[in-house]
């Protein structure tokens, strides 16, 4: 088997806003779309991201441990810019920190089971034994 994509859930009322955030602010392109879901890819990436509409009334209380993660030299500032963009679209979002090098953006009314994480690139410098 070969890894293909990761799927996360969005509330229907903010689905299009989150898709716009990923396409206009983060450069993702739309690969496929159905009534319930959309598949996106960021240029240069080899794993796709799927968002599905979810009417689940309960929120995942531990969603800070489930992230769509990005590398950035300025992670806090980049997430704050996304939060500002989201607020301008009528979607409340806030930035928090896991550490001084790892930050997250949550849009509680939109993200059902994940947050957007941004971390310094050195945190992803994993030594691989091949």
Keywords:
single chain; 130 residues; alpha/beta; 2,3-Dihydroxybiphenyl 1,2-Dioxygenase, domain 1; 4-stranded mixed beta sheet; 19% helix
Care to describe what's here?
The chain has 130 residues and is an alpha/beta fold. It is built from two helices and eight strands. The protein has helices at residues 15-25, 75-88, and strands spanning 5-10, 29-33, 37-41, 48-53, 67-71, 94-97, 102-106, 115-119. It has a four-stranded mixed sheet, covered by helices on one side. Strand 6 (94-97) and strand 7 (102-106) form a beta hairpin. The longest helix is centred in the middle third of the chain and has 14 residues, at 75-88. The radius of gyration is 15 Å and the shape is globular. The relative contact order is 0.22.
How is this fold's topology laid out?
Layout: E1 5-10, H1 15-25, E2 29-33, E3 37-41, E4 48-53, E5 67-71, H2 75-88, E6 94-97, E7 102-106, E8 115-119
Parallel strand pairs: 1-4, 5-8
Antiparallel strand pairs: 2-3, 3-4, 6-7, 7-8
